[in-house]
Amino acid sequence: MTAPRTTAPSTAVARRAGRRPDESMTLLREVTERPLDPGYALMAQRRAEAGETTSRRGTASTLGLLLVAVLLGAATTVAVLDLRAPQPLATKGRTVLIEQIQERSAEVESLSRRSAELSSEVDGLQGAALLPSALVEINELDRWVNGAVPVRGPGVVVRLTDGAGGGLVDPGDAPAESRVRDADVQFVVNELWAAGAEAIAVNDQRLTSLSAIRNAGDAILVDLQPLNGPVYTVEAVGDPEDMQVEFARSAGLGFLQLLSAEYGIEHEVTASEGMYLPGAGAPTLRYAQTAQSMQSMQDRSVEDNG
């Protein structure tokens, strides 16, 4: 015998009362039946009634962004061109400096020629005053040793070349540590003196007992005369074989190898059978005096006090 079909009491009660069976799940019904917020739905309805579409808004927005980008790019380009354009005052100042440098360089060359002429006149007067040949030879030897007059002879040549291709690149692009410094030239000169050099010149600038090798920024100065790089040539007159041997035994060669390995500064040490080193002119003594003049000053001082 089959059992009669029955209805659950809660369902039957809900039907009798006219209520929905899922009335207790209001939140779930809202999510499934109306996923769009009423406010958004109302706005979408209004836009649809006004004839606005999403595609039109997207096109207008894209065109607006492109217009803004073009305007910003044009403004940036104009600003960059304006900043990079040479200013009239700066150009004028640069021109004035170049003209002054050229004028001073021409003046220095003129004074150097005049100094050479006066030195020749002084040499002639001294030769005429020193009649005994022995005095003339002693005076000439002293002038050679002091670097006042030009000399010729064999010797050793040391060349130092800036790194980064030896100046083949723009000097502003070359690393600062790869350039030859004044201390490098000083070290080489001192080692050559110790090796037996009798006269030395750096880039045709003769060295004397009063010479100074210094730097001014990136430039190397010898007696306040700038040297033109990137190659710096140190010429030393003396016995080529003995000087090469002594220079190799000293710390000079090792120092050059260190510069080459660490900073890329190239070096070359060669012998020369004939070199010409210009003279530096007669030195100006500010403190040194001859023994006779000092004795005469002391005698005069004693007479004045007595």
Report on this model:
This protein is an alpha+beta fold and about 300 residues long. Among the domains are: about 35 residues; about 120 residues, Alpha-Beta Plaits, CATH 3.30.70.1880. The strands form 2 sheets. It has a 5-stranded antiparallel beta sheet with strand order 3-2-7-1-8, with helices on one face. Strands 4-5-6 form a 3-stranded antiparallel beta sheet, covered by helices on one side. The longest helix is centred in the middle third of the chain and has 42 residues. The N terminus is likely disordered.
List the secondary-structure elements in sequence, H or E: HHHHHHEHHEEEEEEHHEH
* Major beta-sheet overview: 5 strands, antiparallel
CATH architecture of one domain: 2-Layer Sandwich
- Low-confidence runs of at least 5 consecutive residues: 1-17
Rg calculated over all Cα atoms:
47 Å
The best one-word shape is elongated
Number of strands: 8
- Which band does the percent of strand residues land in? 15-25%
Record keyword descriptors for this entry.
306 residues, alpha+beta, 5-stranded antiparallel β-sheet, Alpha-Beta Plaits, 11 helices, 15% strand
Task: Furnish the topology, listing elements before pairings.
Elements: H1 9-17, H2 26-33, H3 38-50, H4 54-84, H5 88-129, H6 133-146, E1 151-161, H7 163-166, H8 182-194, E2 199-202, E3 205-206, E4 213-216, E5 219-222, E6 225-226, E7 231-237, H9 240-249, H10 251-263, E8 266-277, H11 291-305
Antiparallel strand pairs: 1-7, 1-8, 2-3, 2-7, 4-5, 5-6
